[in-house]
């Protein structure tokens, strides 16, 4: 489309904001210098003609794969050309090149190379790392099988050691053991790190990782004994060749087992690794990325929905007056503003986990693993909590855009299908919540036996003081001031304590009735998930509130405080039953909360567009006609539609 | 052979699956007819959907057109007619994957809005498929709010024609199905102008493509609006009109006519027309909303009985994921909802049939109630079922994300129902308007329609339940739902009055209460659904275990609603904190009870494997084998040019040549 001026509604919205969006962008990026650098890297991609291409919505799956692999090859080369080496900067570059979508080399860069670094011996690094770094080897990480995902111990692929030839024989003994889903496996990779049950000297030693060549270098044909291919069409991830891998008596040399920790000696003797907690570190790191991704994906959807709602006019509020912007309807604000607040909350949570991880990873390298279990438990829950919320939130944003949200030109369908698998991968969310619950129950048990607990669960310590009086924990009075974020943190704390205690007690009651621990756990799992959710919710409110004190600019702090209050109060309103049942809030207070939520909607309304502008997504990255910065929605929908492949072939043939 | 994990589920059914299927169909005879139709369609390879997940938008569209044409032949061959008992099962058998559905809407609008003369002219042409019709209402800038449409039709007395125009970009017709490529004619809704005066929205028949060579008519710009989340088989289109002239006789004139001299005449009552619009919302529930949820439940529950993961007891085999309480808590409430909404749909159909008879006797008394119910239930059912399908999708973990599970396309299709035929929030506000009005009338002692008489009779009180078993009494929970509905309606009504008394304009007060109004409307529909489910169960025959299992599902539906919205029930202390613990306990107990019949309960929906089109949900439960074989057929497994073009240079370190 030709250069158009900014839509008048958006211009007016931006002029009316009470704060400077750039200042908030700096906070989200972690400082003005980070913002500057991010935009510099963004410009490298945007100004590079090699990374331009037509709208992906009009391409078939195969074409999208081709486009992605083309860009990935260039990306690797150009990263080196530009000398970009910092992991976060690589992440920016990659996400600008691929516009926030997955790409076929994701697993090579994100799993294959890092796993070599952390789990390969120096000798193995010599053999594999540099060729992989130079892309002579492209690898993937083959863990998930058809029959098993999150429950790793159930994986069925076998690697049987044959001392006579000093080889491992890899097999997929059943249909369910076929490797299924690994990205880049279907068409791109020529190597895979395969997780398999190790058998040596007739004994199963559990899961271990093996470097397996799968395609012939030079011809790219599958090697004899290897069946490999693409698993077919999916909801999203069109550009990713998620694949399957079946191995029949496929032999690899002994030296291809990753042996930095566990080892198999030439005669087949197995040497155990020292600690298994080390793998926690990687999991914490990846889950922290998902929390950040929840924030970003929800922010993108909010940007689109809020800008569009400022541009779209519909119906009448006052008889005889022009049609109002749909953002002026209370129901529309009620759909979108709590999500906007949530997106901000999750940004701060993501930043917190990342910082904490970096802080304690120093300790980890020095062998101090004391903080890891809590962080591991916390990130499991927060991964689930934030990805579930964002998943639902993206859909709400789409719905809030009415019919046009359903068109792929809105960009939200793509955000959704790209994001939604994060509820499943890296640990299925319900399982994650139950992991957090296990930690909460353990902490509760410690407190019950008179020990103190520390960190985010320290509120459970209060329970022991309560125990002196024969009183329900929640019966203690919390004087909640609904205008004070700090006071709301206390209310969330009380709710979490109440639900953890209730779940732990129900679990105990089940244990008293039944024989098996697992059975009792299963029969309490709905309660346990609720307890974990309440705990995570508390953590999010706490971290958001804590962030406010760090903001020096008054105008920015004021608007963030409104968002923080909205986040906390909306959560109470939606979960009013928990607060009522525990006696933390009275019905009259809940009514006040509901009322205050609506007042906050009106308070936030004038800043809504500026608040999404602060996320600072470039139009190319946003990929949405409805969410364009200039707001020229309808003209560009028409331009976009004219490019649809259905308009290129004539119906006359059929006719 | 059937996977033993599924076979064992079927052996222990507590009721007759066949009897339940007949109940759902409305009698064993209907089941027989339905199965015959399904069989005839599915045995014909033209109607196969096996490759649809691999097809491009163009291929999907072409297949749908081919099916539509072939269907005419098939109907003739089978002796099916549009008025026959088989007709309503055809669409279900095709899973909606057929073109020219708007042709039917085109014909219906002419039948309802056209004069006898117009009907005589156009209906035979349409019936014989000498033209392909569409229905062009929605514009880029306006959807549910019809008065805002901007297309114009100006009457030109000199030539006795209407001149149609798209005066600005937002006035472009946008979304109408079959219009992007197929339709030759369409009914255009436009603002009528005579002598410069606007008479509001009226329907006009406009030819858009040549009947000879299918080229666009002069003044017409039309095309496809591009890729969507689903409906790839439909060419949703845009239409731009530039001084398009149509004869005066092309304005559909049953209710309004423009005379040759430009006089505008309104005749007859439009109420019957209004009623037709209302019924569309109800008529879509069965095929477009309930069927997808039932299919999703079938797929997710069968898969959950086949998928084993982790161990519940040490030393034992890995457990079926259906045995995990958290999995039951995801899926079984959706199953209960599918049954609950099936029965409320029966209730609504019956009510609308009665309404139709009354209206034909020119008794329009039922209209406001029917309108309110159709709006509210369309919104509540589409919202609930859409959420339910998504839960089923996510409950299938990674494999649910594969298109071959069938779940993504069920989801992307059903979610459109939350928007078309009226955006849900707007519809709920219409229901709320009716409820507030009735509430005021009831408080003033005036008569109110039957579905809302409880507003007058409601009394304060507390829930009398004393143990968790009491919450399995329909009287107890129905009363609780009623209480919440009345509380939300009455508190919103007082809030509205307070705001108005404090000096606010009516419309401002209304906008400030809309969040609450939406909640009140939802609570009302939820209450009616629970009440109707309980009453339906009461009337079922006790034989063959049907009533017992339906009672369990009814309890589950009701208690799940309380469990997931505890705040509303605790708010004024109607249910106490201690009672809420009983609700939770009862609810969780029920999950384990219904778990035992979960597979037979989805078997009763009686979907064939062809219609599920899912690797995870097939009747025999051979999930993994099917998934593996199907994936290998994916066109992405053909050697792609990407290797030679991009991968090879990449792997051979010749990147710089790219």
TrEMBL record, chain A:
Domain Acyl-CoA oxidase C-alpha1: 280-441
Catalytic machinery residues: 426
Residues holding FAD: 144, 183
GO molecular function: acyl-CoA oxidase activity; FAD binding; fatty acid binding
Domain Acyl-CoA oxidase C-terminal: from-to ranges: 484-652
First-listed, main subcellular location of the protein, grouped into a coarse class: other
Domain Acyl-CoA oxidase/dehydrogenase middle: 141-249
Cellular localization per UniProt: Peroxisome
Keywords: FAD, Fatty acid metabolism, Flavoprotein, Lipid metabolism, Oxidoreductase, Peroxisome, Phosphoprotein
Pathway assignment: Lipid metabolism; peroxisomal fatty acid beta-oxidation
Keyword Oxidoreductase attached: yes
Domain Acyl-coenzyme A oxidase N-terminal per the UniProt entry, residue ranges: 21-138
BP GO terms, sorted: fatty acid beta-oxidation using acyl-CoA oxidase; lipid homeostasis; very long-chain fatty acid metabolic process
EC number(s) recorded for this UniProt protein: 1.3.3.6
Superkingdom of source: Eukaryota
GO cellular component: peroxisome
Keyword Hydrolase: no
Required cofactor names: FAD
Residues making up the signal peptide according to the UniProt record: none
CDD domains assigned: AXO
Matching Pfam families: ACOX, ACOX_C_alpha1, Acyl-CoA_dh_M, Acyl-CoA_ox_N
Chemical reaction(s) catalysed: hexadecanoyl-CoA + O2 = (2E)-hexadecenoyl-CoA + H2O2; hexanoyl-CoA + O2 = (2E)-hexenoyl-CoA + H2O2; tetradecanoyl-CoA + O2 = (2E)-tetradecenoyl-CoA + H2O2; decanoyl-CoA + O2 = (2E)-decenoyl-CoA + H2O2
SUPFAM superfamilies listed in its UniProt record: Acyl-CoA dehydrogenase C-terminal domain-like, Acyl-CoA dehydrogenase NM domain-like
Family per similarity comment: Belongs to the acyl-CoA oxidase family.
Protein name, as recorded: Peroxisomal acyl-coenzyme A oxidase 1
Source organism per UniProt: Sapayoa aenigma (broad-billed sapayoa)
From TrEMBL, chain B:
Biological process annotations from GO: fatty acid beta-oxidation using acyl-CoA oxidase; lipid homeostasis; very long-chain fatty acid metabolic process
Domain annotation Acyl-CoA oxidase C-terminal: ranges: 474-651
InterPro entries: ACOX_C_alpha1 (IPR055060), Acyl-CoA_ox_N (IPR029320), Acyl-CoA_Oxase/DH_mid-dom_sf (IPR046373), Acyl-CoA_oxidase (IPR012258), Acyl-CoA_oxidase_C (IPR002655), AcylCo_DH-like_C (IPR036250), AcylCoA_DH/ox_N_sf (IPR037069), AcylCoA_DH/oxidase_NM_dom_sf (IPR009100)
Domain of life, source organism: Eukaryota
Domain Acyl-CoA oxidase C-alpha1, chain residue ranges per copy: 274-436
Cofactor(s) essential for the protein: FAD
Positions with a binding annotation for FAD: 138, 177
Molecular function as annotated in GO: 3alpha,7alpha,12alpha-trihydroxy-5beta-cholestanoyl-CoA 24-hydroxylase activity; acyl-CoA oxidase activity; FAD binding; fatty acid binding
Protein name (Swiss-Prot/TrEMBL): ACOX2 oxidase
Organism: Sapayoa aenigma (broad-billed sapayoa)
């Amino acid at each position: 489309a030709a250069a158009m001026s900014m839509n008048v509604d958006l211009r007016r919205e931006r002029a009316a904001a009470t704060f400077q969006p750039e200042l908030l962008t700096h906070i989200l990026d972690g400082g003005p210098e980070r913002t500057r650098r991010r935009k510099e890297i963004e410009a490298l991609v945007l100004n590079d003609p090699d990374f331009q291409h037509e709208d992906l919505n009009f391409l078939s799956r195969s074409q999208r794969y081709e486009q992605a692999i083309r860009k990935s090859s260039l990306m690797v080369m150009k990263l080196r050309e530009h000398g970009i080496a910092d992991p976060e900067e690589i992440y920016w570059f990659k996400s600008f090149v691929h516009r926030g979508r997955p790409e076929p080399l994701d697993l090579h860069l994100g799993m294959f190379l890092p796993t070599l670094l952390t789990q390969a011996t120096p000798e193995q690094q010599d053999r594999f790392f540099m060729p992989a770094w130079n892309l002579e080897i492209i690898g993937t990480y083959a863990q998930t099988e058809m029959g098993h995902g999150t429950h790793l111990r159930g994986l069925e692929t076998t690697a049987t050691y044959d001392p006579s030839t000093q080889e491992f024989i890899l097999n997929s003994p059943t249909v369910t053991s076929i490797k299924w889903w690994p990205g880049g496996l279907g068409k791109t990779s020529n190597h895979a790190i395969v997780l398999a049950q190790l058998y040596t000297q007739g004994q199963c030693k559990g899961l271990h990782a093996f470097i397996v060549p799968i395609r012939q270098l030079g011809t790219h044909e599958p090697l004899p004994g290897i069946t490999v291919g693409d698993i077919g069409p999916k909801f999203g991830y069109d550009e990713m060749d998620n694949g399957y891998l079946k191995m029949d008596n496929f032999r690899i040399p002994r030296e291809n087992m990753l042996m930095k920790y566990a080892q198999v000696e030439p005669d087949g003797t197995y040497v155990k690794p020292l600690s298994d907690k080390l793998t926690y570190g990687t999991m914490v790191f990846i889950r922290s990325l998902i929390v950040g991704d929840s924030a970003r994906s929800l922010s993108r959807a909010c940007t689109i929905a809020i800008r569009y709602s400022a541009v779209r006019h519909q119906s009448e509020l006052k008889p005889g007056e022009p049609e109002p912007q749909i953002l002026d309807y209370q129901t529309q604000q009620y759909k979108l503003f709590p999500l906007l607040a949530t997106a901000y909350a999750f940004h701060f949570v993501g930043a917190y986990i990342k910082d904490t991880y970096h802080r304690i990873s120093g300790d980890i390298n020095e062998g101090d693993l004391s903080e890891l279990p809590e962080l591991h438990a916390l990130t499991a829950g927060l991964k689930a909590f934030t990805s579930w919320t964002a998943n639902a939130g993206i859909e709400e944003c789409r719905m809030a855009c009415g019919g046009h949200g359903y068109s792929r030109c809105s960009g939200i369908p793509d955000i959704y299908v790209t994001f939604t698998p994060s509820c499943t991968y890296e640990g299925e969310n319900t399982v994650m919540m139950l992991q957090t619950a296990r930690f909460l129950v353990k902490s509760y048990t410690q407190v019950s036996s008179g020990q103190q607990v520390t960190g985010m669960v320290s509120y459970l310590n209060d329970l022991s003081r309560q125990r002196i009086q024969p009183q329900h924990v929640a019966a203690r009075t919390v004087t909640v001031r609904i205008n004070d974020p700090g006071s709301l943190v206390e209310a969330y704390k009380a709710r979490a304590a109440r639900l953890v205690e209730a779940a732990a007690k129900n679990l105990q009651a089940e244990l008293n009735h039944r024989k098996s621990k697992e059975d009792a756990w299963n029969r309490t799992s709905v309660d346990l998930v609720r307890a974990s959710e309440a705990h995570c919710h508390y953590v999010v409110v706490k971290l958001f509130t804590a962030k406010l004190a760090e903001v020096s600019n008054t105008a920015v702090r004021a608007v963030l405080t409104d968002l923080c209050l909205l986040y906390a109060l909306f959560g109470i309103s939606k979960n009013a039953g928990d607060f009522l049942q525990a006696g933390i809030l009275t019905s009259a207070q809940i009514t006040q909360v509901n009322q205050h939520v609506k007042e906050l909607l009106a308070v936030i309304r004038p800043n809504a567009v500026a608040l999404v502008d602060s996320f600072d997504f470039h139009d190319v990255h946003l990929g949405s006609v409805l969410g364009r910065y200039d707001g020229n929605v309808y003209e560009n929908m028409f331009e976009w539609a004219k490019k649809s492949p259905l308009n290129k072939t004539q119906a006359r043939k059929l006719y | 052979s059937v996977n033993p994990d599924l076979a064992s589920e079927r052996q222990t059914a507590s009721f007759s699956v066949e009897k339940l299927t007949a109940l759902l169909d409305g009698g064993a005879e209907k089941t027989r007819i339905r199965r015959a139709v399904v069989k005839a369609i599915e045995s014909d390879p033209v109607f196969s959907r096996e490759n649809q997940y691999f097809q491009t938008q163009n291929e999907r569209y072409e297949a749908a057109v081919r099916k539509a044409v072939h269907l005419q032949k098939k109907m003739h061959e089978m002796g099916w007619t549009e008025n026959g008992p088989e007709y309503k099962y055809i669409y279900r058998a095709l899973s909606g994957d057929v073109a020219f559905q708007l042709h039917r809407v085109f014909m219906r609008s002419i039948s309802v809005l056209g004069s006898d003369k117009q009907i005589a002219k156009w209906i035979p042409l349409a019936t014989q498929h000498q033209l392909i019709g569409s229905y062009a209402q929605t514009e880029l800038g306006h959807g549910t709010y019809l008065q805002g449409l901007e297309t114009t039709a100006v009457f030109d007395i000199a030539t006795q024609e209407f001149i149609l125009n798209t005066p600005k970009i937002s006035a472009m017709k946008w979304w109408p199905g079959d219009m992007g490529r197929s339709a030759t004619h369409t009914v255009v809704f436009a603002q009528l102008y005579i002598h410069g005066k606007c008479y509001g929205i009226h329907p006009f028949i406009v030819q858009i493509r040549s009947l000879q060579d299918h080229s666009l008519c002069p003044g017409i710009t039309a095309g496809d609006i591009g890729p969507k989340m689903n409906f790839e088989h439909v060419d949703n289109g845009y239409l731009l009109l530039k001084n398009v002239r149509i004869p005066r006789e092309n304005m559909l004139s049953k209710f309004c006519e423009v005379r040759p001299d430009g006089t505008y005449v309104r005749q007859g009552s439009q109420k019957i027309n209004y009623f037709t619009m209302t019924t569309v919302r109800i008529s879509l529930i069965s095929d477009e909303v309930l069927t997808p949820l039932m299919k999703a439940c079938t797929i997710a529950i069968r898969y959950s009985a086949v998928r084993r993961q982790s161990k519940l007891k040490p030393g034992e085999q890995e457990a079926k994921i259906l045995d995990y309480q958290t999995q039951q808590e995801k899926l079984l409430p959706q199953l209960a909802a599918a049954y609950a909404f099936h029965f409320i749909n029966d209730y609504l159909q019956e009510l609308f049939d009665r309404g139709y008879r009354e209206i034909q006797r020119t008794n329009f008394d039922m209209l406001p109630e029917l309108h309110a119910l159709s709006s509210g239930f369309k919104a509540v059912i589409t919202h609930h079922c859409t959420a339910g399908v998504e839960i089923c999708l996510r409950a299938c973990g990674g494999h649910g994300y594969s298109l071959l599970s069938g779940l993504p396309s069920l989801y992307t299709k059903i979610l459109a129902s939350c928007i078309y035929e009226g955006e849900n929030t707007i519809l709920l506000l219409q229901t709320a308007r009716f409820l507030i009005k009735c509430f005021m009338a009831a408080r003033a002692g005036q008569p109110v329609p039957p579905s809302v008489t409880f507003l007058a009779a409601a009394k304060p009180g507390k829930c009398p339940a004393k143990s968790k078993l009491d919450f399995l009494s329909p009287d107890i929970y129905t009363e609780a739902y009623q209480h919440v509905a009345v509380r939300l309606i009455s508190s919103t009504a007082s809030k509205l009055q307070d705001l108005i008394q404090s000096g606010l304009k009516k419309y401002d007060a209304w906008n400030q209460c809309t969040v609450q109004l939406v909640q009140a409307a939802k609570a009302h529909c939820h209450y009616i659904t629970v009440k109707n489910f309980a009453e339906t169960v009461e009337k079922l025959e006790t034989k063959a275990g049907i009533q017992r299992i339906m009672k369990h599902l009814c309890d589950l539906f009701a208690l799940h609603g309380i469990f997931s919205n505890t705040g509303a029930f605790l708010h004024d202390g109607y249910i106490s904190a201690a009672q809420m613990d009983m609700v939770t306990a009862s609810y969780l107990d029920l999950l384990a009870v219904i778990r035992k019949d979960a597979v037979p309960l989805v078997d009763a929906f009686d979907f064939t494997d062809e219609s599920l089109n899912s690797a995870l949900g097939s009747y025999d439960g051979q999930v993994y084998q099917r998934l593996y074989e199907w994936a290998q057929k994916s066109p992405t497994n053909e050697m792609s040019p990407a290797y030679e073009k991009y991968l090879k240079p990449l792997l051979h370190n010749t990147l710089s040549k790219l």
